[in-house]
Every structure is written in C-alpha cells, then in structure tokens.
Predict the structure.
Amino acid sequence: MKLGLFDSGLGGLLITRAVRDHLPDLDILYYGDTLHLPYGNRSDEAIYHYTVAAMDHMFAQDCALIVVACNTASAACLRRLQQEYLPRAWPERNIIGVVVPMLEAATQRGYKHLGLIGTNYSVSSKIFEEELQKINPDMVLEQVATPLLVPLIEHDGLEWAEDILRSYLANMSLDQIEGLILGCTHYPYLKPVLRDILGENVDILSQDDIIPEKLADYLQRHPEYSDKIARNGNISFQVSDLTFNYIQTAHKIYGEAIEVVQYG
C-alpha cells in the first residue's frame, strides 16, 4: 500500500518533495485535481464532491493513509470526510490534514501571537481560528488573505513578490507577531522574500518544514496505517487534467523533472 498526498492543484508538490526527503523509503502517490482548480472559488458542497472523488480514486489505488495538503479542502470538508465519508466508504483507511499540525507546531514553540497568510477561502473559513481554540485558546491569531500570491508563483512573477507581500503584511502587527504561518501549499516559495522582510525576529512556519516531521510522528503513533505502507521508495504523480503548462510548473515546483500522468 501507499501514502497518498492530495492537493487541488500542484502546490502540494512542495510538501510531497519535503515528505520524500524526510521519509525517502515510503511508497507515495501524489494526486492533484488540476481539472477543478482553484478550489477557493467553489462552494463547500462542490469542494466536498471533488475531494471525495479524489479520495475514492486514491484509495482505489491502494493508499492506506491520505494527507490532504490542500488548505482549502482541509478547511471546507476534512471533518466531514473523516466523520461521514470514511466510515461509510473506507473504514480501514484514514485522511489527515495540515491545519492542526501547523497550529500544534506553533503551540509547541511557545508562541502567544501568530500571524497567518492564506487564500481568501482559508482565511474567510476561520478554520485556523476554530482549531486554535481547541489547541490553545489563549493564543492571538491575525490573518490576512493574500490572493495574488498563488498566480504570482505559478506564472514566474516572483520579482514582484516583495512589494505585494509588504502591502499585505502592512495589515498585520508585525512588531508583536512571533511566528507567521504560511497557510498555502505554494507559499514555501516565498520564504526567502519573507525572511528579508521580517528579519530574524519572526519565525516562518512553513508547511514543507513542519508537515514531514509531524507525519513521521503520526506514522510512529499509528502503526495500523504505517505498517501497511510499503517501503520501496516508489513515487508516482497524477493529475486530473494535464497541460504543457502544468508539466512545466510541476517540474519547477517539485525541483526536478518528474513524470506526471493524467488520471481521472
């Protein structure tokens, strides 16, 4: 069996590469629902429908555990997937997200005042606020929606990123924030620019740094899934719609040429 990593597009390839580097022996299937991106413009019901179809596809290809790396899908329907879909359709499998591990990491580092940048949907859903109330209700969270960043990253526009980021971050209390959560799978690309802007006083909490360690810990604590995943180091990449631009973008995001196939 395999570990699955799912995203609505290709940004999750950054997380996949980080997981691959941290846990190189795991057999991995990456699936990006490029046919329906961006999820952030869809209704909750549509996001749930698309994500269920992706989960069915991945579980049918023998994934024992799936990480929903997509922050929008995590915000819109992770709990519903876990509570309604899994018991009915795949009771021996599991689905986990990326929101809670990021907040746990911030809490473990002792922070009291956090910032977060994310897509319009992730911020407006208030999923990070809701989960933070369960983990550490005393922590302050400031959120800013940053919708221009994903198209900027995907269309080689990083030369304009600093000015746009400075404009977005002007809406935050940077003199009080101890850590900034990058609440989108694309945003690890922005770490060097953010470090120049924020200096050394604000910790950058990026999913490609945190999720692999959190996943390794989860697998250690859950042998009922970990023991099922093969350790041959195999990895495959699939998308629901494949264009030349997606192939080029996938190579860039993953950091090397990879074989991406259309499936679904």
